[in-house]
Design a protein that fits this description.
The complex is a heterodimer of chains A (348) and B (389). Chain A is built from 15 helices and 4 strands. The relative contact order of chain A is 0.15. The two termini of chain A are 13 Å apart. Chain A is mainly α. In chain A, the strands form 2 sheets. In chain A, strands 1-4 form a two-stranded antiparallel ribbon. In chain A, strands 2-3 form a two-stranded antiparallel ribbon. Chain B has 2 domains: 204 residues, 3-Layer(aba) Sandwich (Rossmann fold), CATH 3.40.50; 148 residues, Response regulator (Rossmann fold, 3-Layer(aba) Sandwich), CATH 3.40.50.2300. In chain B, strands 7-6-8-9-10-12-13 form a 7-stranded mixed sheet, sandwiched between helices. In chain B, strands 2-1-3-4-5-11 form a 6-stranded parallel sheet. Classes of the chains: A mainly alpha (348), B alpha/beta (389). Chains A and B meet through helix 3, helix 6, helix 11 and helix 14 of A and helix 3 and helix 4 of B.
């Protein structure tokens, strides 16, 4: 049991973790994720890809909302920008995927500047409504710019290949998504440990005090929008690769609400919380389905007539109970468990 | 030793109980998938759709199944969200191993599932959302049953023009700002050009709009007395309600979604005997026969949920079953698709025009019938039988 935590250099202070055990377990987790496609079926792999895309999106939103304190209901719009950019560049302009994916991120970042500049003086609900309006504007632009976006017909996404491997299904898509999720997580963790991350946290905690301390609010708020939207647009591009079809109906407002629910449930302001929230909410419907089919006879009238309502209620109930008993989110469970393990057999 | 091995191999091969063909087919059952709107605001549509498959399967199984195999329907919910449709179909294909798909939710949902459908050569009947985007371009294993919104609206407007047009007709349209709305407007455009009538005003609204006060005020100002009402469910009812508040004397052509009892109940208080164009029957002996038959396979609660969405999926599964029947014991997806392609004049008992998929677009049920609601009695009557437009 460690009795002290001594740092002897700046490098040690800003290291992601000073625990060899933590790095070892991280390596084990990554190894497990790498071999997963060979152990699970195609449907389970699809769920994993969906969860990883949700992780990327949640990490992006967490930078804006959790770290900088800027509430955004426009995530569906940024997802759409990323998805459509990737789809159009791949399908209509036949660009390779290693160009279309980053381009999707850049498109999201550029659009976020357009959203961010008018939003700089806004906070709280006012900012939320502004970003929501942006999501509506994006939908309209996609519908009316038919020459570019194919309007309401949508775009079938084809031609995503890397080194001869098709990237739109199976293990290839999974590995691409895993790599980008790991990159997004490390990028977010590293950013939070820099001057930029500290400025974001200061803005979230008290923006006037942050300004008094010399933090340029305009610059850092815009930067938060740009970085967040870049990552979320990449998530949108990956979604377009997975579904292989994009249309405005794919990016309904509910996605923005779900994204917020993910980071709140996971633990606002925490990258690990965003990851946990994304994984939890991605698998919750499946877990409820499995539990219900075990507990209730699938051939019974109760199951056949009411199973969808029961699932919906169970879904909502689980989320409400979690927030009631663990308001700091899923990351709170992790912190409690870690503290218990470190302090055992002592209470504190 | 060699003889023993050969005998053992032969014994093992002949002992297999399963028909080792395409997924979803065994000696005793055929699994048919159904991806539907089972939750959310549009769940009552999905329930109606699901009932169609259930009733058709019950009827077919009661008559002995398909060459001795019973049909098993596996339903997954997509909540009308395209990304969930993709996930739902992935589950049906990879985990449940379905043979074919009947019941496909909305247009965007079908398109989201299309890459999986074409990859797996999955025999698919699209009956709920027969959009041109589904059959243009045609996909080899996809068969569409249903008329276009364009034809349905043209049929209604033609009836109004031929039989009950007001003295100084001014036509107007209010439609959703998406691909569905575009199709509605295409039918309106065709009617207005052909009849040479005054095109009063064309309005668009975003999906989900519920307040049409401003739009209907514009309609009144334009003097519209023949309305192409492109709203659906509560939207359509609100449009008519606003028209009544403004004391507008209008004849209204509506989407086929307004032919279901729930929509009629919502819209009837406005007092307009609106028209509906549909590719399945809304009333008549065929519907009565269907309801009498359906009682055997549904609970009273379920029977109350039967609507035109039930009829479309019922026809879809019956068409699919007919093709599977023709394949005999050696049932494969390729054979089913081939038989579906050769389906001609399949009788649906009057629920629709006879089904024929033997055309390049693999499209059937394009004939439209026109009905009119009696708002006081909440009953529809047929004005024009099934006809091609």
């Amino acid at each position: 049991m460690r009795t002290g935590n001594y740092k002897e250099s700046v490098g040690q202070i800003i290291a992601l973790s000073d625990s060899k055990a933590a790095w070892a377990w991280t390596a084990v987790l990554i190894a497990a994720l790498i071999v997963a496609p060979y152990l699970v079926g195609a449907y389970a792999l699809t769920l994993m890809v969906s969860a990883l895309i949700a992780v990327i999106g949640a990490v992006g939103l967490n930078i804006l909302t959790g770290t900088t304190g800027l509430i955004s209901l426009g995530q569906a719009g940024f997802l759409a920008v990323g998805a459509y950019t990737n789809a159009i560049l791949l399908t209509d302009y036949h660009l390779p995927v290693w160009l279309s994916l980053p381009a999707a991120g850049v498109a999201g970042a550029l659009v976020s500047i357009v959203v961010g500049i008018p939003s700089l003086r806004l906070k709280g609900l006012y900012l939320a409504i502004t970003t929501l309006a942006f999501a509506f504007i994006i939908n309209h632009i996609i519908l009316y710019a038919e020459r570019l976006t194919h309007g309401p017909n949508g775009v079938f996404v084809t031609g995503a290949k890397l080194f001869g491997f098709g990237l739109q299904r199976g293990p290839a898509l999974y590995y691409l998504t895993l790599a980008l999720a790991v990159a997004a997580i490390f990028a977010a963790l590293n950013l939070l440990r820099t001057r930029i991350g500290r400025a974001w946290i200061a803005i979230r905690d008290h923006d006037i005090a942050a300004r008094v301390m010399g933090i340029d609010l305009v610059r850092y708020k815009l930067l938060a929008f740009v970085v967040s939207s870049f990552i979320v647009a990449i998530a949108g591009a990956l979604l377009s690769l997975q579904i292989r079809f994009v249309n405005i109906d794919v990016f309904a407002l509910i996605l923005s609400i779900e994204a917020l629910a993910i980071i709140i449930l996971g633990g606002l302001g925490s990258v690990a919380g965003a990851v946990l929230g994304a994984v939890f909410l991605s698998y919750l419907p499946e877990a409820i389905r499995l539990v219900l089919s075990t507990v209730i006879d699938p051939s019974s009238p109760l199951y056949t007539n009411y199973v969808y309502e029961i699932r919906g209620i169970a879904n909502g109930l689980v989320i409400v109970l979690f927030l009631r008993f663990k308001p700091d989110g899923l990351i709170g469970f992790w912190r409690d468990a870690r503290k218990y393990w470190s302090n055992w057999p002592l209470a504190y | 030793m060699k003889i023993a091995t050969s005998v053992l191999t032969a014994a093992l091969l002949s002992a297999t109980a399963a028909w080792a063909g395409d997924p979803g087919v065994s000696d005793t059952e055929i699994k048919i998938g159904d991806v539907n709107i089972m939750t959310g605001p549009a769940a009552f549509v999905g329930r109606g759709v699901s009932l169609g498959s259930k009733i058709a399967a019950g009827e077919i199984n009661a008559a002995g199944g398909i060459n001795g195999r019973k049909i098993k329907i596996l339903t997954e919910d997509d909540g009308y969200i395209p990304s969930r449709s993709f996930q739902a179909l992935t589950k049906l294909l990879e985990e449940d191993g379905i043979f074919a798909l009947n019941g496909t939710s909305g247009t965007a949902n079908v398109l989201a599932m299309m890459p999986l459908i074409t990859e797996n050569n999955l025999p698919t009947l699209v009956t709920t959302a027969p959009s041109a985007l589904i059959y243009n371009p045609v996909r080899p294993s996809v068969f569409t049953f249903g008329a276009s919104y364009s034809d349905a609206f043209y049929a209604q407007l033609k009836y109004i023009h031929d039989h009950s047009e007001p003295k100084n007709p001014v036509y107007g349209i209010i439609r959703q700002d998406d691909d569905f709305g575009q199709e509605v407007e295409a039918g309106y455009e065709r009617a207005v050009k052909e009849f040479g009538v005054k095109d009063g005003i064309r309005l668009r609204f975003k999906k989900g709009t519920s307040n049409f006060a401003a739009e209907m005020a514009q309609m009144k100002q334009a003097g519209v007395n023949v309305l192409a009402n492109g709203g659906i469910f509560a939207g359509a009812a609100n449009i008519l309600s606003e028209a009544r508040k403004l004391d507008m004397d209008i004849q209204s052509a509506d989407v086929w979604s307004e032919g279901i009892p729930a929509s009629a109940k919502l819209a009837a208080p406005a007092g307009y005997d609106y028209l509906v164009g549909d590719y399945v029957a809304l009333t008549g002996p065929a519907v009565e026969r269907f309801l009498a038959m359906a009682k055997q396979f549904t609970t009273p609660d379920e029977l109350a949920g039967v609507s035109r969405y039930t009829f479309v999926t019922y026809v879809g599964l019956k068409s699919l079953a007919h093709a599977m029947q023709e394949c005999g014991k050696e049932l494969t997806r390729a054979c089913t698709i081939d038989k579906l392609r050769h389906t001609k004049d399949l009788d649906t008992g009057g629920l629709s025009a006879p089904v024929s998929f033997d055309n390049p677009q693999q499209l059937a049920g394009t004939e439209v019938a026109v009905y009119q609601l009696n708002a006081k009695e909440l009953k529809f009557r047929e004005l024009v039988g099934f006809k091609k437009y």
